[in-house]
Amino acid sequence: MKDFFEHFRHEFELPLENPVLIFSLILFIILLSPILLRKLNIPGIIGLIISGVAIGPFGLNILEKNSAIDLFSTIGLLYIMFIAGLELDMNEFKSNKNKSLVFGFFTFIFPLAIGFPVCYFFLEYDFNASFLTSSMFATHTLVAYPIVSKLGVSKNQAVAITVGGTILTDTAVLIILAVIMGNSQGNLNMAFWIRLGISLSVFSAIMFLIIPRIANWFFRKLESEKHSHYIFVLSIVFFAAFLAEIAGVEPIIGAFVAGLALNKLIPHSSALMNRIQFIGNSLFIPFFLISVGMLVDVSVILKGQTALIVAGTLSVVALFGKWFAALVTQLAFKYTKTQRQLIFGLSSSHAAATLAVILVGYKAQILDENILNGTIILILITCVVASFATEKAAKKLVVETEDDSSGPMKVNSLDNEHILLPIANIGNMEKLLEFSIFIKGKKSANPLSVLSVVSNNNEAENNILKARKKLQEFVEQASATETKVSIIATIDHNAASGISRIAKEIMADIIVLGWPQRTGFIDKLIGKKVDSIISNTDKTTIICHFEKALVSHQRIVIAAPPLTEHENGFELWFTKMAKLAQELSIPIQLYCNEMTLKSIKKLVKDSKLSATIIPSQFSDWEDFLDLSKNVRENDLFVLVSAREGAASYMVMLENLPSKMEKHFPNNSRLIIYPQQFVQQFGSKRYDQINPEPIHKGIETIQKIGKGIGNIFKKDNRE
C-alpha cells in the first residue's frame, strides 16, 4: 500500500511528466474554460490563454513547455493560418485584391512608422534593435479568426481584406527579419537577394501550379475514400510549411498558401471542410492558444521600472498602430464602424510572427531581455483586446447583416426553404446530394428531404423497407456536413404522381431531379416521368447531370432566355446558382439579353451576392444550341427553361434533355424550370383533377407490360 501511495504522489509531482495525465489536463481545460468564461461574457479564446498562463512554467508550473507542447502548438498555429486561407472567399478576394494590398500597406507602414521613433528616441535602442522591434508591431496573428468563423461572418469583405493583408505584412516583416539578420552578420549582398527571390519563386510555383493538380487528381481517383481526403490535406499543409521554411520564410506563410491552393477544391459546405474545422477548433487551435499563455511571464512586471515601461510602451504602440491603420482603411474604403472594429480586432493580436521576430533578434543579441519580456506581456494584452473587439464587432455585424437582408431574399423566405430530392437511381445519389447540400441555405430550419417512390403493388411494403435501408447511408453522408436529412418512402401508382404529391405535402420550394434515362415504349404511351413532374408541379425544378465532381468545374455557364426575370422563381434559382459559384469559388459566365442582365445586377446588389459574374449579350434563341462553341469541357452548363404558358416559354425549348445530351455530351449540365405561379394559383390548377382513373389505367398497362416481359424471359430461358 505504501508503494501505491508513493507511486501516486510521484505521478502528481510538478511539473507533470506523465503524458496521459498531461493530455487529460489540457483536454479538461479546452472543455471547461470556454464554458465557464462564457457565463461572464468573456470570449473562450481568452480563457484558454489565461489557463496557459496559470498552468505554465511562469505560473503554477503544472506543465513545462516541452517538445510535445511545442509540436501541438505548431500544429495549431499552422491550422489557424490554413483555415484562414481555406475559408477566404476567393471571388471576394479577387474582386478586392487591390483593397487587400492597400490594407496590407497601411497595417504594415503605420505601426512601423509609429514604432520606430518611439523605440529609437524614447526607449533609446540602436537602429537595428529599433527597426526590428517596430517591424514586430506590423505583424498580426489571426488568433481571433475562429470567432468570425464560428459566427459565420468570415465571408465579409472586411474579413477578406484583413486575411489577405496578413500574408503581406507577415511576409514583409519576415523578409525584414532576414535582411536585418544578414545586415548584423555582414551577409547582406546581391547573392542574398538572388537566393531569396529564386527560392520564393520556386515555392510559389509548386504551391499554385503543382499542388492543385495533384489534389484534384487525388480527390477524383479516390472519391469514395473520404477519410483519406483529410489525411491528404493535412499532409499538404505541413509539406507546404516545410517548403516555406526552406524558401526562407516562416512556416505560417506556407500553411496560409496551402489554404489558398486548396481553396477551390474544398467547398465550404463539404464534409471535408466540416472535418477540418471540427478537429482544428476542437483540439489543435486550443492547444496553440494554451501554449501562447504558457509563454507569458507575469513576474516581469515586478522586475523593475524599466521592464514595466518597455512592456507598457510596446503594448500601447502596437494597439494604437493597428487601430490607426484600421481607421485609415475605413475612411479609404467607406466601411462602417463595425467593419473598422472587426478589422482592428482581427489585426491587433500579436503571437506567432511577433514571437518569431523577437526570439530570433534576442538570440542574435540584437534585442535585450526587456524587449523579450515586454513582447510576451504584449502578446497577452493584444490577444485579450483582439478577442473582445472581434467578438463584439462580429456579433454586431451578424445583426446588421440580418437587418439589411432585403427585397428578393425576404419575399422567397429562403430562411425556411425546403428542398426535395427524389431518387430513382441510387448510383447518381451522391453527386445529387452534394449539389443539394451546396445550394441549401444554412439558416433554413427545414431538412433536406430525400424521397423514394415505390409502386403500389403486392410488394409495396417490402420495397419501402428496402428503399429506406438504401437511403440511410446517404443520411450519414449528409450528417458529415451537419446537414439535416429526412427520408421519405411513399407508395404511389407512378413516380411522377408520388413526387408531385409529396412536394405539395412538405411545401417544397425546390425539386432536384436526376437526368432522365432513355424512355421505353410504356413511358412514351403514358408520358415521360420528368415531363409529367414538371407539368404537375409548380415548384422550382432543377434537372441535373454531373459528368464529374462538382469541385472539378472551372465556370458556371448560364443561358437565360428573355423575360425569365418575370418568372416568380427568378430570384430563387439565381440566388442558388450564385451560392453554388461561391461554394466552388468559380465565376458565372452569363448569356442573356440586356433587360435580364439589368434585373440580375439589381438582384446581386439587393441580395449582396458575392459571385463573380461575366455577362455576355445573347439573343439568337432560335439556335441557342450554338452556345456549345463557347462551353468548355470543365464548365457546368445551366440552361433556364420554362413551363408551357410561362412568360419566358419558347417552343425551341421543348425536349431539352435529349437536345442537351446530344450537343453537350461531355459537360455537366442543369436545366432549371423556375416556379411560374404563386402557390395558391398552382394548387387551383391541379387539385381539381381527379387522378384516380388515370392511375388505375397506368397500373393496368404496367401489369400488362410486366406480363409480356415475363413471357419473353421465359422464351429466352427455354
UniProtKB/TrEMBL annotation:
Membrane-topology descriptor: Multi-pass membrane protein
GO biological process: proton transmembrane transport
Listed Pfam families: Na_H_Exchanger, Usp
Domain of life of the native organism: Bacteria
Cation/H+ exchanger transmembrane domain location: 28-390
UniProt KW keywords: Antiport, Ion transport, Membrane, Transmembrane, Transmembrane helix, Transport
Annotated UspA domain residues: 417-544
A single cellular component GO annotation: membrane
GO molecular function: antiporter activity
Subcellular location(s) per record: Membrane
Membrane-spanning ranges: 20-37, 44-63, 69-88, 100-123, 160-180, 192-215, 249-266, 278-302, 308-333, 342-364, 370-389
PANTHER family given in the database record: NA(+)_H(+) ANTIPORTER NHAS5, NAPA-TYPE SODIUM/HYDROGEN ANTIPORTER
Protein name: Kef-type K+ transport system membrane component KefB
Protein source organism: Arenibacter echinorum
Organism classification: Bacteria, Pseudomonadati, Bacteroidota, Flavobacteriia, Flavobacteriales
